[in-house]
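Problem: given the chain below (498 residues), write out its structure.
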Amino acid sequence: MNITVKKGNLADTKTQAVILALCEGEKTFSELVSKIDQKTGGLLNDLLKSGDFEARPSQISVIYTRSLPAKRIALVGLGKKSELNLEKIRNAFAKVMQHLRGLNIKDAATTIDWNLLPDQKEKIIAAVAEGAGLGLYQYTPYKTVGRDELKEMRQLEIVVEPKDYSVILDEIKKTNIITDAVYFARNLISAPANEMTPTIMAAHAGKIAKRKNVSCRVLDRGKLKILGMNALLGVAAGSHQPPKLIILEYAGGKKGDAPIALVGKGLTFDSGGISIKPAEKMDEMKTDMSGGAAVMAIVMAAADLKLPVNIVGLIPATENMPGGSALKPGDILKSYSGKTIEVLNTDAEGRLILADALSYASKYKPAAIIDIATLTGACIVALGDDVIGMLGTDEQLKKEINQAAQTTGELVWELPLWESYSELIKSDIADYKNSSGRTAGTITAAAFLGKFVGDYPWVHLDIAGPAWTIKDKAYIPKGASGVTVRLLVEYLQNRLNK
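Solution.
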C-alpha cells in the first residue's frame, strides 16, 4: 500500500472512505469534523448522541453518505484525550485500515489533527503512517488456493492544508522508508527455513549493498576457519548448509568516525542440535534469525534515510542441526577471541555464534555495540511476549535506547548484569561454559556475551518474546514483528539530533 500526501480539504476529497479519528467524551468537534458533519446533515453528531459510537480506543463505525465526494466515513476512536499517546494512534489507524480492507475497500483518505498531541506534531504523522502501513502486513507468497480472494488496500492519502504540506510530506517519506524496512525484516523472518538459508540470507544482504555508501562482505567456512571462529563453526558443524558471517557496512558519516556496531543472531533454523528441542513449535525456530534480519533492515533504512552515521552490521548465520559431525555436549571450542568455551548444552547456540561476532566487532573500534537476539526462553518467562529484555554495560546507551523505546512502543526492560552473575558461567575445564542452567537464564546468557565485547559501550537486546507473535496485535499481525527496526532507527536519529 502507498501512503501519499495531497494538498486539499478532506471534506472535498473523492475516495472510497474518509477516516476520522475522534477522542472519547469530547463535547465539540474540530473545525474539519464539524464541516463534514454539516455536509452529512448532522449524521456524526447523531451517531455520538445515540451512544452507538463512543470513540473508545480503536472502536470503529462506518457511515455511508451520499452528501460527500467520499462514499463512506470511517470513524475510529482514540479513547480519552487525557490518556492519548502515540501507541493508541498507531493501534487505531491499524484497526481502521484492517476493517476497511475487510470491506474490500482499496483506497482511503485522512488528515492529521495537530491538536491530538500538540507537543509531538511530527511523531503524530509517523504514528498514523506506521499504524496504517504495518497493520496491513500479510505474508502470502506461498498462498495458491484462493489467492484471487486476497484483499489488499492500494492507497492511503493524507490530505493537508498547503501550509503543512512540506512538513507532513517529509515525515511521511521517512516513515515509509522505515515501514518498508520493517516489512523487509518480517518477510525474511516469515520465510520457511528451506527458503531462508544462510546463503540466501547473505544474498539479501548483497541486494542491500546496491544502495549508495553500503558495502557487503560474506565470510564463508574457509575464511571463518582461518580467522579461528570456532564457536560459529562448531554450531554449524551438524548442518549441510554452509555458515556465513555477513558484514554490512554503511558509510554515511565522516570518514574515520567510529561506527555503531550492530550484531544480529542469524540462526536460520535451530533444532537445538544434539540437545534437541521438543517437536511442538519447533517449526517456529525458523525465526531464530530475527536479530540478523533486524540488523539488515536497520542498515537498509539508515541508507535510504541517508543518515550521517557509520554503521557496521554483523550477522553470524548458520543452522543448528544434529548429525554425525554435530557439536556435542561436553565439547570445548576455542573462540575467535582466544577464550575457550565448554559446551554443556548445544541448544544454547546463539551465544556461541554471537561470541565470535561480538569479538570481531572490536576490530572496527566502534562507538557502541548493540546486539539483537532471540536468545533465551527465560526472557519470555521473565517479561512475557511483548517486552524486550535489555542488559548492558553503558548507562547512557541504555538510557538512549529506552528513550527510543518510549517513542516507538517497542518497549525494553532492563535486567541487572552484576559481576556476581559471571561466577555462574565459569567452567571447571575451560574459560566459560555456555549454559548455567535455568536460574537467571537471560542474565547469565548476557553475562556470557559480555566476556567477548571488550571495553566498548555495549547493550544486549533479548527479543525472544516479541520477535514472533502467536496472535494478532493491532499493527503486528500474527507472525513476524520485525521488532527493534523502528526502535534502533529512532535511537540512531536521536543520537544524531544530539
